[in-house]
Amino acid sequence: MPLYEHVFISRQDLSNAQAEGLIEHFGAVLADNDGKMVEHEYWGLKTMAYKINKNRKGHYAYMRSDAPATAVQEMERLMRLHDDVMRVLTIKVDEHEEGPSVQMQKRDERERRPRT
User: Fold this and answer.
1) Of 9, 62, 66, 94, which residue is most buried, by most CB within 10 angstroms?
2) What's phi and psi for 22, nearest 5 deg?
3) More confident residue, 108 or 85
């Protein structure tokens, strides 16, 4: 099955538990459609570069999935209809990277990139 990475932003007035509950909810949607959520991370409440729906901050969540395209389409459709979700980004990847995402790594653990 194809591999995907999803990032979504939910409203700032949700609690941390509610925001993490959204991850589980959308993971269940994938499971109901013959897919599976491989891994997920809750990145926390972060300030955005610009306002979205009058919100300055948002709860960021990250998911890695192994699911057919129809399952991903259904999950994205439900995310767009959900009142608490403001933005959704899904990309198809060739393989999932091992370990935590770059967002969750400490600054000194990240690989040094040459600056040009």
Assistant:
1) 9
2) -65, -35
3) 85
